[in-house]
Amino acid sequence: DGLGYESGRPSQEGTGICILISVIIAFTFFDIWCAFLIMFFALLVTSIIGWLAHRRLSGYTGDVFGAAQQCAEIAALFIAGAYAI
To answer: How many angstroms separate the Cα of 16 from the Cα of each of 7, 23, 52, 61?
Structure first.
């Protein structure tokens, strides 16, 4: 409820565009199964972090968003690396 309360809320349109770009990139560079696994585990990791942040902090901070992004990227790279073997 402070001055920055509304500053970190992306629009639904912006979120949809970001998801669409991510899906296009994943399916362009990987086959369908690897891209599906990358999307699934990135969503799973960010959902778990969001749930934990909401439960422990009763909200989200910039640090939580940064951690979610880093963990999603690690999950995507882990799946891509495991699939490349």
So the answer is: 18, 11, 24, 21
Nearest to 38 by CA among 52, 51, 48, 25: 25
pLDDT of residue 4: 60
Model's pTM, two decimal places? Answer: 0.76
User: Phi/psi of residue 7, each to 5°?
Assistant: -75, -25
What six digits make up the tokens of 56? 């422990």
What number of residues does the chain have?
A: 85
Summarize pLDDT for 5-28 with one digit per residue, the tens: 666 667 889 889 988 998 999 899
Chain mean position to CA 45: 7
